[in-house]
Structure formats: structure tokens, C-alpha cells
Task: structure prediction
Amino acid sequence: MHSFVGSALAVFASRGLQAIVVAVIVGIVSFAMIHALPGDAAYRIAAGRYGYDMMDAAAAEAVRQELGLDQPVLVQLLSWLSTLAQFDLGKSAVYGTPVADEIATQLGYSLMLAAGAVIASLVIAIPIGVLSGLRPHGLFDRATLGLSVFLRAIPAFALGIMLVLVFAVQLKLFPVAGFKGFTNLVLPSLTLGLGLAAVSNRVVRDAVAEAMSSDWRLFARTKGLSSRLTLTRHVLRNAALPVVACIGVQLAYLIEGVVIVESVFAWPGIGHAMVHAIFGRDIAMVQGTALVLGLTYVALNLFVDLACRAIDPRGRAA
Result:
């Protein structure tokens, strides 16, 4: 117990330092990218506030003065970093509402989508991977390998459109876009989950195949354990560690996919909001959403590290 607590504290300290570095880097990079976009940010923000019909040069100049867009870029960046040091993400340049309030609502939807994608991937990957690992190089194993390569090669937006055409337009089983209930969660979760499962099921397959050919598995069978007990008590637990580690590696794909899939399905999450903020040149909103996505990635990796140490006691000693 003490070894696990000590290991967990070390992980918290490491990830806490990583979170600070990520916050600074993401803030600087997102700030530089939004300023590198062509066009006048003040005009785009004024158009978002008042509409393109009501926007003119005077309105754009007023926005420029109000938001300090006429100041040097370095001064603007340092101003945002000093505000961030006070745990304040600022206010939306377009809507005037606190960025933290906007993100608090949107992040819940994004986490719901991410959780649905992970659950969908595990439901698909674990049984397919276990069956493939029990009979490696068999017909089922080769067929699932080809399907995995195919699914991983398809971009998330293309896969999402395919699912919409089949299950929403043709079969009319699920809604197309938006969020009015949990039925809207099925298609976007499946879009992300299939991409994750395409890799996860091969990791499960390799881990199960290695465990089935190991000496300790043969010893368990020799001492009288049935095939079912050997599989459930020993094989699956030893195979779980690389699967959990693989999920940690795939979190980058998940964060990236959330931004794309939310735009395809008009999902009211943080990725969809960031895309709209980029088009509207809402600098504070872009920086805030990018920062939260980066810190979410760090937090999810923290949970993966703790899960790996809980599953495998050898990780605590290491």
C-alpha cells in the first residue's frame, strides 16, 4: 500500500510539472498560430459581434482599441500569460462571456464523447483481440488484421460521414447531428471508437498470444486449473497492462479526433467551439480551449499511469 501511495505521489509530481510546461507551450503556440492567420482579426471579431451587415471600419477600430490588438504582439502574449497565472482564462472577444464558463459547459460534452469512444473501443477490441490471440495466425486473426488496417487508414471525418450515410440517412436508426439525447452519442462515439479499436484489438491479440505461450500459463494448467480459470485469472490480467498503456498512447489520437468528429456531427463540445473560435478570431477562446485540451491530455495520462501501477505491482518498484 505504501509503495503504491509513494508511486502515485511521484506520478502526480511529474504530471504536475508537465501540466505547467504544457500550459505555457500551448498558450504560446496557439497565440502565434492565431496571429499568423491572414486578414485583420479586429474585422472578424467585429463581424462576429455585430454581423457582417452592421460591421464597418469604425466598429473594427473600436474592437481593436478595446481588446488591445493595436499593441505589440509580445505585450499581448505577456498580458494573457499574466492573466493565466491568476487562473483566469479571460473573456470571449466575440460574446464577452468568461471563457471558463463557456468551456465548463463544452468540456462536459467532450468528456462524454471521449468516454463513449473509449467504451465503444473496448467493447469491440477486447473480444476480437482475445479470440484472435487464442488462435494466432488463424483465419479470424488474419481477417481482423485486414479490417484493422482498413479502419485505421480511414480519416475520422470520412468514417463519420460513412456512418451517417448508412445508419442515419439510409437506415434512419440514429440522429444525424447535434445533441438532444444519448442516441446522438452513438455515431460520434462509434466513429472515434472504431479508430481506437483498430489498434487496441491488435495489442490485445499480441498480449493474449504471448500470455498463452508463456511458462506460467503452462504451469497453471499443469497444476490443475481449467482453461477458463487460467484465462480469467492469469491471462487476461497480464494482457490488461499493455492494453491500458496502449490507451494512454492513443489519447493523442482521441483528443485530435474529438476536434474533427465534433465538427462533423455538430457536437456541442470544446473541439467544435475551438473551430468556430478560430474562424471568428476569438483569440482568448482559442487559447483557452487549446489549453484545456492539452491539460486534459495530461490528466488522462495521469489516470493511465495510476491504472498501470494498480494492475502491475512491478511498476511500483520500478
Summary: The chain has a mean pLDDT of 84. The chain has two domains: 2-85, 102-279.
